[in-house]
Amino acid sequence: MFSYYFFITIKNTTMIDEEIYTMQNRDAFACYIYHKYHSLLEVYAFALCKRFRFDLSYADDILQELYQKILVSPEVVIEGYTQHGCAYLMGMLYKGTLSLNRKFKSRRRLLEVQAEHAPTLASVSHISLIPYIEETLQDMAQWLSERDLDIMKRYIEGYSQDEIGQELGMNSSTVGVRIHRAKKILKPLMG
Amino acid sequence: MGTSNAQLVMFKPEPLRADAAHPVLVVPVVATLVQGLMPELLDRSSASNKALDEIQHYLFAQPKLKSRKLEKMVLPEAYDTLYALKAMIKNHGLQATLQILAEDKRRFAVFLREVMED
User: What is the pLDDT along chain B (118 residues), one digit of tens a residue?
Assistant: First the structure.
């Protein structure tokens, strides 16, 4: 729980009557968001699930993550909400969905290179994949060069070839070729 | 326009606002969406009414889920939300959709209470 008491006044300029809401703590803010926006955010979460081709049941996970962020870092969310209104909350949902999408990609890629170190599909939205990724990278380190390991680390983290290329200053097609070669090397050794 | 106003007023979880700028704003999710993302549509101008008419037509009269016209008129987040809402209305009808959302909201209150107590 929050160890200090904060007091903030939010003027929600997006409302017709420009009501002024007084927030006394993080719970009050979370409840305010829940009462005012929950249904809208749920429908948007459904929309994001459709767009990313997730099962609609993941909308709950995306919403839960949003409320957890509100409760963990209320000052940040209150500031964003004060400046941008509900567009900020929808942006948070979008980022949460992107992150979940990356986790799904990451799981699929872990399976491609090392089935033993992949979590179950049902657990993906609730757990961190970092331990699985690290364990897999330790195994890969025996067989790949440092550069290829850098590429494969990002690959199994769920990044696209373009993103990996941009981050490592490489052409995305070169990244694609090196991923293909690395997988070819790893298949008989780690499968 | 052939829009189902009857369907719109059938479910009233909250009292109908006397000052509602447009019949489609009776649907709570649409009202919150417009107030939150596109408050300029509440100015009762003819351009705003046209946009709200289009939203109403899309949700209740147009058979197709996709609408290039609406997509160009509103913000991408708003279009995505309306798209998902339309899909729900198409599958369940407005009344059932609003009941599903209200039930989901009640269910979520349990989760929220639990995490706030942690």
Answer: 333 444 333 333 444 454 567 899 999 999 999 999 999 999 889 999 999 999 999 999 999 999 999 999 999 999 999 999 999 999 999 999 999 999 999 998 888 888 887 7
- State pTM to two decimals: 0.77
Helix A161-168 × helix A172-190 angle, to 10° = 110
Give B6 to chain A, closest Cα distance, Å.
Answer: 22
DSSP alpha helices (H): ranges in B1-118?
Answer: 5-10, 28-37, 46-60, 68-73, 76-92, 94-117
Contact indicator for A38, B13 with CB cutoff of 8 Å:
no
Of A40, A46, A68, the CB nearest to B32: A40
Q: Could you count the other beta carbons within 10 Å of the beta carbon of residue B66? A: 12
Complex ipTM tops 0.90: no
Under 8 Å CB-to-CB from A115, ≥6 apart: which residues? Answer: A191
Cβ–Cβ gap B32/A50 under 8 Å: no
Cα A158 to Cα A98: distance, rounded to the nearest angstrom: 10
Interchain CB contact of B76 with A (< 8 Å): no
Instruction: Determine whether the interchain pair A85/B105 forms a contact, defined as Cβ–Cβ distance below 8 Å.
Output: no
Cβ atoms of residues A77 and A26 within 8 Å:
no
CA A100, CA A94: separation in Å to the nearest integer? 10
